[in-house]
């Protein structure tokens, strides 16, 4: 804080801090407080709002605990989001390591531009591209039929389609934190490990991954949170048997007309996601300061 006052002066720094606090209050604090308020109140006709029946309770949250189908979809969304984070990590780690330690500057620029340009397009359009790619008569089935891998077209929509779409959608949120972390690793440490006889796996396990754990944890946190709160990919690439919890929330708000129960479902998802994220950071021995860097 003192650095800001020293650099920009008291007046300008006060304006900056005021704008940040106003943004946090209006865009973060107020919506979440309203969601909590809705979640703890019953869904009543306008005439009954503020009346004797309009009292705070946990009925909307307990409804989720007693609704077996919704509870199962909730648990599936949590572990599936963790699976998305894990698969994205598996895909991104080799790319990030190659970019940070092996690739030439020109190769790094070309690859980063190639990965970034598709994300200039809206997420809905990118997901629709996957919808076309995975279609029953789409390019993927046509290629597999041509190569003789399959004898008839496969319906890729469902859990596999949702996972593939999400891994692609959130790849940059995993790649950049890991790349930034590995880039700061001195190459001499890797060379020293090899000179001492360490295998490639042991070098990564004992040198690279411990150094990059903050970037890995940051990427996993971002990817998990985005996957758990995603709606577009499950709605377009999913099937009736692969519903996502966000689809249930959407149905409560826009089809069932019960904003209170929808807010309760959203609140439970938010709280559990925060618990999972904090537990992950604790296990990885990474604090929030490292994530924010």
From TrEMBL:
Keyword field: Cell membrane, Membrane, Transmembrane, Transmembrane helix, Transport
Name used for this protein in its record: ABC transporter permease
Keyword Glycosyltransferase: no
SUPFAM superfamilies found in the cross-reference section: MetI-like
Gene Ontology biological process terms, A to Z: transmembrane transport
Record field: transmembrane: 12-34, 78-99, 105-121, 128-150, 156-179, 214-237, 262-284
Family: Belongs to the binding-protein-dependent transport system permease family. CysTW subfamily.
Keyword Lipid metabolism tagged: no
